[in-house]
Amino acid sequence: MEELNKKWFQIVWACLLITSISITYIQRMSDALWAHSEVVQILDRVLMWVMLPLSVVMFVWMCISYWRQSERLFWRKWRRWGASLAFGAAAAALLVVLVHLAKGEKAAIEEGDRTLLLGAFAAAGLIWFLARYKFRSWRGDE
Question: Global pTM?
Answer without folding.
Answer: 0.55
